[in-house]
Amino acid sequence: MMQSTLLRRIAPTLTRRALSSNAAEASSVMTLNFNLPHETIYNGATVSQVIVPGAAGEYGVTADHVPVVAQLKAGVLQIMHESAGEPEKYFVPGGFSITHDNSVTDISCPEAVKVDDIDPAAVSSNFEAARNAYTAAEAGSAAQAEAMVDMEVYRSMGSAVGINLS
């Protein structure tokens, strides 16, 4: 019973993809929309792949990817452009990714910074400040929880630039 329900749900998508007149084109490119509250980084950009730091694990999205909604964790979002070369890398503190069945992926984050623009010394200093705030805060307080979140974000940011913060 469950298999037939699943088949009924996915059959239209599979049929549409199999009968697509642009199957060769659709299998190589996808559209990316990457937005912050104060800035649009990409709007309708054609890319070959995006590697997303999902809360349940890192995963890659290419054209014709199955639809998925994912919460992002602090980490590196990688964008592979059609012209190959090195991926464009952004550090994101979290957010959401929505991949639609038409090879469009929407990514929304509260902030993003190019990994190349991150100062490792500032990350290390801010991590230490967050650790001190955590230690100084009352156990179980909101201040301690905020400091713990800050520590995790700076730890992830440090990892993005090749430093190990413990």
TrEMBL record:
Where does the source fall among the domains of life? Eukaryota
Q: Which Gene3D superfamilies match?
A: F0F1 ATP synthase delta/epsilon subunit, N-terminal (2.60.15.10)
Subcellular localization is given as: Mitochondrion inner membrane
Keyword Phosphoprotein present in the record's keywords: the answer is no
Q: What is its main location?
A: mitochondrion
Q: Where is the ATP synthase F1 complex delta/epsilon subunit N-terminal domain?
A: 30-105
What are the GO MF terms of this UniProt record?
A: proton-transporting ATP synthase activity, rotational mechanism
Q: Check the record and name the InterPro entries matching this protein.
A: ATP_synth_F1_dsu/esu, ATP_synth_F1_dsu/esu_N, ATPsynth_dsu/esu_N
Q: Which CDD domains match?
A: F1-ATPase_delta
Q: Which keywords does this Swiss-Prot/TrEMBL entry list?
A: Hydrogen ion transport, Ion transport, Membrane, Mitochondrion, Mitochondrion inner membrane, Thylakoid, Transit peptide, Transport
Provide one Gene Ontology cellular component. proton-transporting ATP synthase complex
Which residue stretches, if any, does this entry annotate as coiled coil?
none
The Swiss-Prot or TrEMBL record describes its family as follows: Belongs to the ATPase epsilon chain family.
Q: What is this protein called?
A: ATP synthase F1 complex delta/epsilon subunit N-terminal domain-containing protein
